[in-house]
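Researcher: Please translate sequence to structure tokens.
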Amino acid sequence: MRDIRRSQADEEDPDVLAYLQSLGRRLVDASKSGQEFEFFLVRDASLNAFALPGGFIGVHSGLIAAAESESELAGVLAHEIGHVTQRHIARMLGKSRDAGIAQMVGLVLAALAARSNPQATPGLIALGQQMAQDQMLSFSRDAEREADRIGFDTLTRAGFDPQGMVSFFGRIQRASRVYESAAPAYLRTHPLTTERMSDMQARIREERYRQWPDALGFRLIRARMQALIDPSVDGLRRQAERFESQIKEQSTLDRAAAWFGLASVRQAQLRWAEAYDAAQVAAELLQQEGVDKDSAASALERVQIQALAGQGRMQEAIERSEAALQAFARQPRLVLAHAELLLRAQRLAEARRWAESLLADRQDDLRAWDLLSKIYAAQGERALTHRARAEVFWLQGALAASIEQLKLAQSAKDADFYHASTIDARLREAMQRWRSERAAMGPQSGRDTKP
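Model: Translation complete:
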């Protein structure tokens, strides 16, 4: 993990991550597996999702953008949950004892890299994706059928349309026939047979038909992923034209999502006034419809707050942020965004209070530690700055770098007794873990022979 670059908080999309985690929790609860899962976003335009050892499930941004319904997206995630709960990945890795450990390490590294930093070293991400697409990691037909069965039951119990799974797999099957040389990446590790499609269609026939409306959160997050699927100048221009066309043609809720997509494009283009106006129209449309805003609707507020700040209207942005914190029950991503605003406004004591309050309940929040390190640095707190940087490296898996930062924190000599004690304790813990990891890896443990 030492090759993972420093976390780039501005490049992360906490609203998308929060939506994925929420959708994932709903499915995991319905699966009744009792296992821990973590869902993370991979910024890749391809149509793909994958499961990794330890309950990590990666979702490509291209999959979210291409989903025609929330049930389609949920169907893919339910299928991947099935692979994890039935231990298909562990079984495959176990078939090759020599390569199994190396594969698992590579896959988990890729999972942690994508989770901690979407801008992680391309080579490391490529390693994990290559392994996930390797023939040795292709799921067997029996495993696919079992994951279909588990996924179908999970999808139904979670309250989604089971037709979503069938429609998604049917679409990628048709795409693979038309474009054999450019078949969706998902098919490389999930062989799709006529028999599988027949089995899924038979299950559908047993279900009663009903309407399955998409959640507001899905509509907004899909629009955001569509907006940012190609961040080039031409790509953003094309998406803006697409959303402007949709605004004229669709239902009110879809028009609201299109306006939000357009706001996301303008945000990426740094056209802040237009971003604010587009998000405002989306909010007004939702209000007209009397839609009960779910937690994902805070994404609208975040765009408008960032747009105000982008225009230099910092006081308005802070006031709007304070209102959003009340309206959305202090969602962690809103707390973090509020602390970032206060830092930009040089209101350091307030920024510190908000960031530290977030970490009181979320010690593994990498972005909060990264922000807090900047706040401490602005306050001239050298020991605490190094301590916070140590936590960032720790969460990224760069243990040697974390130890180095903790030693720098010790040598800074400006911490009070309490903080000095926590730094000492954390360093002892880090050293113990470092020695344990090196002992487990044996003599060929890589370049880091000393922390």
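Researcher: Any highlights?
Model: The CA atoms of residues 238 and 337 lie 29 Å apart.
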